[in-house]
Specification:
Layout (H helix, E strand, L loop, with lengths): L5 H11 L4 E5 L3 E2 L39 H4 L5 H6 L2 E4 L6 E6 L2 H10 L4 E4 L4 E6 L5 E5 L2 E4 L5 E2 L9 E2 L2 H6 L30 H16 L5 H16 L7 H13 L4 H15 L2
Parallel strand pairs: 6-10
Antiparallel strand pairs: 1-2, 1-3, 3-9, 4-6, 4-8, 5-6, 7-8
Length: 282
């Protein structure tokens, strides 16, 4: 492609530091980097198709497009987006951080009175407070306050000032909502949980073992788009086995081991699992 634009140069520098980045168009919206996502035709939802299936070099929309791979960022397919880009964004969850987006002076004042000090970055109308650690993203947790971490993106506005602190319980609590009486409480996946009558709804461990074996095989046989394949596989396993509680640490370890054998880092595995749980409401 032609000489890098200033936004692409910024993106490449951030990616070299381990920050997953993507271009934003006017209006602080992500580009769709394939025809299926052009002009937001996909509705803003990440498209997790395998590379090549829709002309994409990566999962192709919003936070899922963020990458640290300079070859992807500097590729011909992404060239038009960088030439039209109005800003650079990053995936906070992929970088292991959480952004508390304070959208007006009143929200900033609330944060100064309520939250522990951390790195702060000025924005057009307020500030970003950035903490080490990840959590589910959530908008409008209180007036003028959004949380951007897993499955979200934030504009890159510079390094800011101050020392980044650990994600405090006060921020995590902002995203906790009172459970609806009609909604089943989430169950831990660390130990087996039996259904009514003490019996797993799948009736036999063979069903689960076969499912885990097939999932491991799917990850092992991936030839491209490994990250997307791992996420889709985790999502499939959890959609089938996550709610009855029959998954154990041993089952999860088998999936993580297969993913790491394909080059996924432990953090990427954890993020993919957490994102799949969040998507399914587990």
């Amino acid at each position: 492609m032609s000489a890098p634009t200033s936004h692409l140069r910024t993106a490449l520098r951030l990616a070299a530091d381990g920050l997953p980045v993507l271009p934003l168009r006017r209006g602080k919206l992500p580009f769709g980097n394939c025809p299926s996502c052009a002009r937001n035709a996909c509705g803003g939802r990440p498209n997790m198709k395998a590379a090549g299936a829709c002309g994409c070099l990566a999962p192709c929309h919003a936070w899922a497009a963020a990458t640290t791979d300079p070859h992807v960022l500097n590729s011909t397919a992404w060239g038009p987006a960088w030439r039209q880009a109005a800003a650079v964004a990053y995936h906070p969850g992929g970088a292991g951080v959480t952004v508390v987006d304070l959208d007006d002076p009143a929200a900033v004042q609330w944060a100064r009175e309520t939250l522990p000090a951390t790195r702060t970055v000025p924005t057009t109308r307020g500030e970003h407070w950035i903490y080490r650690g990840t959590m589910p993203s959530s908008n409008a947790v209180r007036p003028g306050v959004d949380i951007k971490s897993l499955m979200s993106y934030a504009r890159w506005l510079g390094n800011g000032a101050g020392t980044m602190g650990a994600l405090p319980d006060a921020v995590r609590a902002l995203a906790v909502k009172d459970p609806s009486p009609a909604r089943r409480a989430p169950q831990t996946l660390s130990v087996p949980v039996r259904g009514p009558g003490g019996e797993c709804r799948h009736r036999t461990p063979t069903y689960l073992d076969r499912g885990i074996t097939m999932a491991v095989q799917r990850i092992t046989e991936a030839r491209s788009a490994v990250h997307a394949t791992v996420y889709r596989t985790f999502l499939a396993v959890l959609s089938t086995h996550g709610r009855c509680g029959c998954l154990t640490e041993a089952h999860i370890a088998r999936l993580f081991t297969a993913a790491q054998a394909k080059g996924e880092s432990p953090r990427h595995c954890t993020d993919a699992w957490t994102n799949a749980c969040t998507t399914l409401g587990l």
